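User: Sequence recovery, please. Input:
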């Protein structure tokens, strides 16, 4: 079933026009991804200001985009509702520290969106994204395939960029994934990492210039990148905005492309009843299928630990979540 509402266009409702939301809107306009963009924020003046500012640049965009201020009622015929609203991560604060504040905010947001008659796809960016994507699925009652979190799409992009720098190749030729929680328990999948068609482990074995300890440091830098950026300028937004735009394009153009997002697991990787970052195939109906990488024993152990951390956070809020003992 094609869940997109508009046969001749694409309509996105953006909720939250802060740093991430406004950067996402800017990316959508510059790439000509959508036909109709509705911007919604509790700060009406801020959202209206963004709409006016973006419209002034319309003449420089590749395609005409109708950008307008809206309310939750305008979500009723949206193809995609993207949630960037919520409390921001503060210096020294982990993504999981935001749970209590943002669960309350999300209950109100999702209830109002669903009351409009919305029947499309949710894309969640707010942290902790895995927790809030699960909450959006629960609050909305939509099929799991139509509730997606940004997950580890940015972590994977950071990883590929850093590996490209290290091996002196374009990130486009680096095929590697960060999976797990979008946060401190995420992990690199070196057993399925390639430069072109050559496994990274093979390159290390063949060339003394490349070392595993260098890769380990690359991962630590990737995992902790957000903390460094937040300390420097208060928030991260350009990278995740580009990632959200990439997911949006994959949905609206029915790409069937593989991206690492927060997806619901129902037995995949030996886990269930949790949203967590894994590679999936995305098309116009949302998540078509979860791609199960052939993890090493150590990687599987780390992934299971990451999933359990998320379940332990979810358990006090959702009675059907049972962390592993």
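Assistant: Recovered sequence (325 residues):
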């Amino acid at each position: 079933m094609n869940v997109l509402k508009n046969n001749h266009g694409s309509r996105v409702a953006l909720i939250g026009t802060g740093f991430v939301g406004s950067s996402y809107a800017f990316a959508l306009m510059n790439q000509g991804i959508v036909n109709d963009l509705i911007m919604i924020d509790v700060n009406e003046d801020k959202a209206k200001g963004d709409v006016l500012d973006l419209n002034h640049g319309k003449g420089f965009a590749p395609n005409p985009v109708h950008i307008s201020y809206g309310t939750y009622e305008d979500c009723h015929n949206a193809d995609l509702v993207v949630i960037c609203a919520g409390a921001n991560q503060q210096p020294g604060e982990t993504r999981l520290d935001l749970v209590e504040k943002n669960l309350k905010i999300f209950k109100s947001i999702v209830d109002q969106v669903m009351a409009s008659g919305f029947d499309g796809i949710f894309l969640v960016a707010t942290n902790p994204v895995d927790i809030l994507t699960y909450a959006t699925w629960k609050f909305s009652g939509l099929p799991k395939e139509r509730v997606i979190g940004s997950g580890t799409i940015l972590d994977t992009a950071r990883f590929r960029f850093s590996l490209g720098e290290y091996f002196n190749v374009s990130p486009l030729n680096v095929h590697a994934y960060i999976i797990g929680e979008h946060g401190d328990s995420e992990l690199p999948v070196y057993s399925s990492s390639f430069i072109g068609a050559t496994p990274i482990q093979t390159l290390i074995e063949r060339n003394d210039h490349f070392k595993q300890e260098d890769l380990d440091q690359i991962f630590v830098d990737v995992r902790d990148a957000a903390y460094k950026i937040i300390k420097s300028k208060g928030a991260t937004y350009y990278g995740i905005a580009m990632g959200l735009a990439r997911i949006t394009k994959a949905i609206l153009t029915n790409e069937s492309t593989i991206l690492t997002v927060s997806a619901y697991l129902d037995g995949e990787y030996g886990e269930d009843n949790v949203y967590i970052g894994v590679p999936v195939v995305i098309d116009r109906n949302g998540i078509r299928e979860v791609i199960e990488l052939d993890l090493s024993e150590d990687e599987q152990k780390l992934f299971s630990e990451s999933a359990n951390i998320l379940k332990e956070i979810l358990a006090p809020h959702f009675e059907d979540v049972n962390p592993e003992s």
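The two ends are 39 Å apart (CA to CA).
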